[in-house]
Amino acid sequence: MKIIPSRLFLAILLGASGYVQADDLLETYRAAQANDPQIAAAYAAQQAGREKLPQGRSLLLPSVNLSANSTFNDQTTQYQGTTFLPGGTNRYNSNGYGVSLVQPLFRQQNWQAYSQSELQVAQAEAQYRIAEQDLMLRVAQAYFDVLIAQDSVRLAETQKAAISEQLEQAKRNFEVGSATITDTLEAQARYDLTGAQEIAAQNNLEIKRRALQQLINAMPKDLAHLGREFQMEAPQPADMEKWVDDAQSNSPQLAVARAADELAEKEVARNRGGHYPTVDLVANYSSNNANGGSFGVGSETTSKSVGVQLNMPLFQGGAANSRWREAQANRERARQELENARRNVATQTRQAFLGVASGIAQVKALQQALASSESVLEASKLGQEVGVRTNLDVLNAQQQLYSTRRDLYQAQYNYLLSQLRLKAAVGSLGEEDLNKVNQALD
Q1: Mean pLDDT, rounded, for 141-169
Q2: How does pLDDT run across 397-438, given as a tens digit for each residue?
Q3: pLDDT at 27 over 60
């Protein structure tokens, strides 16, 4: 007899009993961190942006160049008007090398470019922060989309089973003569409609699962649903304008727009520096030797020089003025884009705040509506038994109950998403916020 290892036996036992470990929101997010191509591209862009700083710093540091040459010379000389200098052909090699050093002493454009590189690094960091928060929101949206799609399938199946019972009852009542054929036809029509809705729900579930698969690069397993300990909390502080003020100070979208505005301002100053002189410290060392020459005599030459070099641009065909005007126009564009970003962030923050506040009220209202719908269904069934309610009344009550339950699930998920969007609007969304939402899942 083959002995089954204890761990394998436990896995078989749990699987047979229907107990399967479900993936929660935090595990799904970490899987997306490792597999989502958008966040990987954002990380690469962040690393590329960080290289702007050493590139800008290099404009202030000395540059050293080495040059070398080796030349074969074939020279024929014929002197005219004299007999004392014989002509002829000389063939010889010449070799040399040189080292030059240039240390900028005053270059207005280089200083502006260096300060711009610091802003470009800050911009790259803020853009990556946006990508991180966007990944959290995309994962939460895709996760809850799968949950509501699963709920819709389950509700459609439950509703179909309930209508099936109602259909069978209508058929029995018709056979014994206590109901008309209309009751049977109404139940059959509602059963067929629910079957079509079930197919649509199953198709939608597959679409949502594929959307989540795109993020984590794997087909999602069973996902954890909202648990019974699900609780709602109002935004703290309860003042919407305080959240807006916080967003104006900490939003990464605004950080990107502010950096772009400062970059445009410094670009104006950099192009204005195109009219300024440049001063460099220049040092050169060169050595050249040749084993022949015009008079058949070789030579060896060494040259050393150190000095200060001034260059003053006088006229460049109007290009410098044109670039300056272009930079001024781009500065105005950046200012308007910054103002637009401020307004967008304020609007998004208010929408997210209202989404949380109204979401709480909506969930509470739907919870009450669900209890009322359950009572209506029970009363309709009882009324049908005593003859004061029809089969159609029961079918309508069932439809209302399942619609209300689906709306309640959707409202709960929307409330959780609004919480995350509110944190993202003020730039404070982090893994601890996902973990807090995750604790509401069972």
Answers
A1: 89
A2: 888 999 999 999 999 999 999 999 999 999 999 999 999 998
A3: yes
Beta pairing partners, 52: none
Of residues 79, 76, 98, the one with CA closest to residue 88: 76
Q: Which helix (H) or strand (E) holds 286?
A: strand 278-290
Q: CA–CA distance from 300 to each of 51, 82, 89, 283 (Å)?
A: 44, 29, 21, 20
Smallest Cα–Cα separation from 374: which of 342, 403, 398? Answer: 398
Contact 159/192 with Cβ under 8 angstroms? no
For residue 284, what is the DSSP state?
E
CB-count burial class (<10 Å; 0-12, 13-18, 19+) for 255: buried
d(CA 167, CA 393): 13
Q: What is the pTM of this model?
A: 0.82
Whether 120 and 57 have beta carbons less than 8 Å apart is answered as no
Buried b (16+ CB within 10 A) or exposed e, 403-421: ebbbbbbbbbbbbbbbbbb
- Residue 21: which residues within 8 A CB-CB, separation 6 or more? 222
Per-residue pLDDT reduced to its tens digit, 225-247: 887 767 888 998 899 999 999 99
Tell me the domains of the chain and their CATH numbers.
Answer: 37-70+102-145+216-438 (1.20.1600.10)
Burial of 278 (0-12, 13-18, 19+ CB in 10 A): middle
Beta strands 278-290 and 299-311 are antiparallel
- The closest of 356, 405, 437 to 158, measured between CA atoms, is 405
CA angle 150, 151, 152 (to 5 degrees): 90
Q: Output the six-digit token pair for 314.
A: 């006088």
pLDDT in tens, 35-84: 999 999 999 999 999 999 999 999 999 999 999 999 988 877 777 776 66
Q: Is residue 54 within 8 Å of 168, Cβ to Cβ?
A: no
d(CA 335, CA 421): 26
CA-to-CA separations, 244 to 235, 240, 302, 354, 415, in angstroms, rounded: 13, 6, 70, 12, 19
